[in-house]
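Worked example 2:
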Amino acid sequence: MDDFIKLPYQLYRAYPHWVAPLEVERRQFLNPRRNPYLRQSDVGYFLARRGRTPVGRVAAIIGPDGPARQRQGHVGFFECTEDPAVARALWEQAVAWLRERDVQSVTGPMNPNMHHECGLLVDGFDDAPRIGMPYTPPYYPDLFAAGGFTPVKELLSWRLSPTSPKLKRWARYGDMPRRKGGLTVRAANWRRFGSESDLVRELYHACWQDNWGFAPATDAEFTYLARQIRLLAPTGVRIVEHEGTPLGFSVLLPDFNQALAPARGHLTRYGWPVGAWRVWRGRRAITRGRLMALGVREGSRAQGATLALVADVAAGALMRGWNEIDVSWVLEDNQAANKPLAAAGATIHKRHRLYARCVRHSQPCSCLAAHARPALEATHAAQV
């Protein structure tokens, strides 16, 4: 596991835009005693070595909901040198492990599921990743193709300026339903952590339940995620209500990758807190945020609630002095979110791609039909 965790720090030395995660955080995240999703799942970790040198890794994952969802598994935490032979060896072992457990199809990469980092970067290599988004080398799609994987879905990252004239017009429209429709937007009250976490979880599942690939988070996993968000952005979770009835929510995070990049993955150097000092200094230089989620229940007030949240997000970014809002990620066929983003002046600046393959067959087959779901119809409720 030590080699498994350290491998990316070796592979990405030639990629200046990659932001090294804190090694101590990665160790905690991959520890099932700390991460409830891994504790509740069946996970196999595989490491490829040439001689004694690690050259590739992958994890095969069957989540708590796996048997109930047509025996679907995931692959994640994939890293590999530019060598198809190494990738094929990893895929052979991971697929065999999944086949033994009666898994029929596998989707990925997901680290470890769609509530966390997922997808291969296919466009936008000249820019650093935002917090919670993966950065992968441009040759990874070829390695997935060598393992018999087929592209199934693209995930879009939109770049939006909080000073955009179009967004300002949206912000003015957002004030109207609040003044005339009885809508209010408030910050989540983390002093009531249990009840607020349950409320956001219920809204999250209600807004995303029809999205492609969505699987509800368990109580323990969502509590784990909520604690992380509370630590990163205590006032970043906003809830829109109508006369006290919650309709939706948004999550706006500072892009802490801007602060983490100078630390290069370590808080200490030779016993001195050099990395910690760099992170502390770098937090003052954060100039952008990531809109991680925005969802509203469908209904008669959905459009007004969405406008109110968008206006609130823009105001929050301006208040913090940010010059950019990264909206990520959005499914390529989620027109309910993509059309309003384009109308607000946002532009696509990154694309990530998800892949799938049948575990029982080595070539693309009809077993993957379940992954080819139809495009979502545009509704008033925008799910990001």
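The chain has twelve helices and 14 strands. The two ends are 34 Å apart (CA to CA).
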